[in-house]
Design brief:
binds zinc ion, 7-stranded mixed beta sheet, alpha/beta, 14 helices, Serine Threonine Protein Phosphatase 5, Tetratricopeptide repeat, about 15% strand, 6-stranded mixed beta sheet, 2 domains, about 45% helix, Metallo-beta-lactamase, Chain A
């Protein structure tokens, strides 16, 4: 992304923000993810609860701005960075002799927690790659505090003269919630807004929902918020800015959705759709849609998965031979691994990195010698892709690949 996009180029997931106050009892604690703090005369409402490691920091920062009991904790959604700092807040309430806060969430959130607990090692594995978390540090929460009350489409409660309207829409998750405080004209939107192309189609994760995400952003815009507090990154102050931002991203998501639907209706298959979808300059230049975390290509992948099965249109691929078997045949016809690697080197010099990578993969899949040469080439090519990649997720996938190849290259201990 270009250097002229002052908003989108702010560091994503910056913890620099700390606690920011906007008057009228509204605060936002900007850590890896944001925690919204709303003070009322009768107590505090927290919207989102951060990572497990954020708990003590949340309590410390909260107690610097308010001594009042936390009455409600709303989970914006059930992701690891939004619903897991809760334990410290509950302990703080107990120590102070406050009533236990009521935890509110969407009705699908408990099922998400059940799934996470059932598949903890898997989520450890994929999140370690996605976020480049070093070995030895837990990569996924293990302490699950389920909501006390859940709702399906919408609900609301009153506290200290303020109304808290909770609305569900599927977006980054199926259990996503945003909160509107009419008296403060403030929207707390969790990951419906993250200062990046929306992370629909995360390569590791279950289905996410582009069209419903767009609808949710349109509903937020229709409120003309004076203040929008996002799931990550800086807050956005209104006067038309929030509407423009939300409607731009909604338009981009609808644009991708419409293209995928149109091409599927025209009988096209995924390879062609992924190679030919349009991403107009309006979106490519938008500071709200920079592919620094999510990526339009990933959005299209998600739409294909949502509307279509996994068959790619080529019957040869329905029950394919193993990639090693295919590669061995191709390598023999090509005159051996050395020739294929030489051609890969030529492509690399021409800057055709992705194509070079596929040739190197033929040599590796066939188990051909010299294997170390092919591994060195693969590490080098992935490093080049990583260096040019703007998406945090894509970059971390390339770099995890480099580490894996380097491990294989290390001399084995005897
Ligand atoms: Zn998040």
């Amino acid at each position: 992304m270009g250097g002229d996009t002052s908003l989108g180029s702010q560091p994503l997931f910056s913890a620099e923000g700390g606690m920011q106050s906007f008057g009228d009892g509204l605060h936002m604690l900007q850590l890896f993810a944001n925690i919204c703090v709303v003070e009322t005369a009768e107590g505090v409402v927290l919207f989102d609860a951060g990572l497990p490691i954020d708990g003590s920091r949340i309590v410390k920062e909260l107690r610097a701005v308010s001594e009042l009991p936390v009455r409600y904790i709303v989970y914006g959604h059930g992701h690891a960075d939004h619903a897991f700092g809760t334990r410290a807040v509950l302990e703080d309430a107990e120590e102070r002799g406050h009533p236990r806060p009521v935890i509110l969430a969407h009705a699908d959130l408990p099922r998400r927690f059940d799934r996470y607990r059932r598949m903890l090692p898997y989520h450890e594995h994929i999140n370690r790659i996605q976020f480049a978390i070093p070995e030895g540090i837990p990569a996924f929460p293990w302490d699950y505090i389920y909501p006390d009350e859940t709702f399906r489409d919408e609900t609301s409660f009153r506290l200290g003269g303020l109304t808290f309207e909770l609305r569900h829409a599927r977006g980054e998750t199926d259990d996503h919630v945003w909160m509107w405080i009419p008296e403060r004209e403030t929207a707390c939107v969790s990951d419906f807004w993250v200062w990046s192309c929306p992370n629909v189609g995360n390569p590791f994760k279950v289905q996410r929902y582009a069209l419903e995400w767009a609808q949710a952003l349109e509903e937020v815009a229709a409120k003309s918020p004076r203040l929008m507090l996002p799931g990550h990154g800086a807050p956005m102050v209104g006067n038309g800015a929030v509407e423009e931002a939300c409607l731009t991203v909604a338009r981009a998501l609808r644009h991708l959705d419409e293209q995928v639907v149109k091409m599927l209706n025209a009988g096209k298959w995924q390879e062609e759709i992924l190679a030919s979808f349009a991403w107009p300059q309006e979106f490519a230049r938008s500071p709200y849609l920079a592919p620094i975390y999510g990526h339009p290509y990933f959005v299209v992948q998600a739409l294909l998965r949502q509307y279509h099965g996994w068959y790619d249109g080529n019957p040869s691929h329905l029950f394919p031979a193993g990639s090693g078997e295919i590669a061995a045949e191709v390598l023999e016809l090509a005159g051996g691994a050395a020739r294929v690697l030489e051609r890969a080197r030529g492509l690399e010099e021409e800057g055709r990195i992705q194509l070079a990578l596929h040739l190197v993969d033929f040599a590796l899949a066939a188990g051909a010698e010299p294997r170390s040469e092919a591994l060195e080439a693969k590490a080098r090519l992935l490093e080049r892709l990583a260096a040019e990649e703007s998406s945090f997720i894509a970059r971390n996938i390339f770099l995890a690949g480099v580490r894996q190849v380097r491990r294989e290259l290390e001399p084995r201990e005897g």
